[in-house]
UniProtKB/TrEMBL annotation:
Residues 1-26 are annotated as: Disordered. It comes from the Eukaryota. This is Protein kinase domain-containing protein. It comes from Aspergillus oryzae.
Amino acid sequence: MAGNENLPSGIPAMTKTAAAPQCSKGDDTADFGDFVRNEDEELDLEEVVEPWYNYDIKETSHVFHPICLGEVLNGRYLVGNKMGSGGGSTVWMAHDFQETKDVALKVMASREVLVFPLMGPCLNWVILRDMPMATRMSAARQLLEAVEIYTKLGLYTVYSTDLNERNCMWGMAPLHNLSRSAKYEALGRPPRQIIPLVDLWKQGELVRPVELPENLRTDEFYLSNFGLAMKLGNPIIPKGYPPTDFCFPDPLHKMKPSFACDMLSYMVIFGAIYLRFPPFRSWRYLIKCLGPLPEQWKGLYNHPQQNFYRTWTLF
């Protein structure tokens, strides 16, 4: 298990501090979520979870590690809910028996597990739609301060992968003083299903991610992932794939990543926070708005997904 300390963030000018629900800790006998009961519930679950074939070694080289609700990892972390999933990991809400608090466990396809503070929802347009301008601009400032700390450490991101909407998160009121049944009352009981169609070496489950109620979200704003960060001047670039909405084209044309790429990605996030929707609908639209790429870059595109190439050849 690899630990991670609280991530840096500025103190917002206007902060909403959510009140944590109160309940006795006596009830720890509640079961873990609800198994789907019919085909309709299976289809509903399928729409919001990672594909089952992410766990199949015949389908992908980056096989996810199967996890079940109620499982205890490293003899310390009791998995109680699902926070989400990404291209190479799943994220789980777990109770740390040693520290007596809830944490987020990022379970990588490599079977490494990163322990993070438990955060609230990531940047999404449903939340932004009804959010006041002052709150949104406070979030933008906090994110800029986090990027400043990042750069003062001499770090920048590869393909700006760490600077995207999935890694920008609001805070969450603490729930570690609640029993498991009270947590489910606050967050909802997660539907779950045994991973189908794959002969797994251990049992795993597909679990619906938490939808955090607005009354548990706080206005603290965090940059939560430094998975592909590297020191300036390091000649070895970690492998990774860019999120198309937040990546600028320099590294995709054999240009070295730089702080400038991170700032450009930050400005895309700022635009999304300000406008309440992504400023660029596609890479083609980005080039239409910002102008063509340098002529000398033509023919240097090196991203393996060739379907994007047509977008980047508008010179």
